[in-house]
Amino acid sequence: MNESNADSIEMNNTAEKPGRDSNVPLGLSTSDYYYDLPKELIAQDPLEDRPSARLMVMDRNTGALEHRTFRDIIEYLQPGETLVLNNTKVIPARLLGTKKDTGAAVEILLLRRKSDGIWETLVRPGKKLRPGAEVIFGNGELTAEIMDVLEDGNRLVRFHFDGIFEEVLDRLGEMPVPPYITHKLEHPEMYNTVYAKFDGSAAAPTAGLHFDRELLEEIRNKGVNLAYVTLHVGLGTFRPVKVDDVREHRMHTEWYQVSRETADIVNRTHAEGRRVICVGTTSCRTVESASTDDGILHAGSAETSIFIYPGYKFKIMDGLITNFHLPESTLIMLVAAFTGRENILAAYREAVKDKYRFFSFGDCMLLE
Length: 368
Known about the structure:
This protein is an alpha/beta fold and 368 residues long.
């Protein structure tokens, strides 16, 4: 979805939406996930009091909605249930520099570490950064050489520096906030969850931003399990779906890891007949990728390009805590697979009517 056009999207919740391919079954066309979003509802800044965000609770069987505050989430959780949280950490992956030979301004966005000093990146402007081009950052304490142009247009880049790369990045890099955030964050640390642990993401698992340490401790004291997975979020999560038939869309690939401890907690929770609730779509994609058809979650690490859309049968997830997502995005399709398309679009219309805050720094839903 092109986020810059979010204010011009027109909702048409019918199979005959203009421009829709009538040969694609209802629910499998990208345009089936359009909804009207006024631009002013796109949250531009995080709330200082994280759990004070609004919470919409949906019974996915009936579509019934409740309007609460995120701090009330604890009332919907029962002892013995498990919350699955993604403990990835967003790094200051946006680097602004100059081309060595011309002095032209360029931007390099770190996507994935390939080996020591070598990253897959997104560069702007691409036409100026061909293989062999060199870029200087800051006072020259960091330089980069373009090694190769990859199939999807990303660049393979080798960085040169003295010391520890992460420390250099902390000094020179900026947080890579989504394109619909129109200004630099005043408090960049707010773009990480309070439980972020492992560096590697280019975007935050935003549903987790609503928790503070006190709320997590209250939840733990109630007897709810907290189980952590790691999925390093790539910027592919913001790439538009360019095909009308969602079955033809190809997802980006992301690295994940599930510990033995987490797998044991989740499997025990299900064995006891209790719910596993994922905090965010990244946690959902992780456990669904790491499980087998018999509903068993397996420990290990791998890469996933799982695409969840209506028709998918969930193996692990029984409930989902998630933000309000971009129209026509793979994320709203994932949510629709869990709640039903009509239910989620009705809920989004209600959220717009009630002026909920949308996207990364916006309000939240509990789907159960």
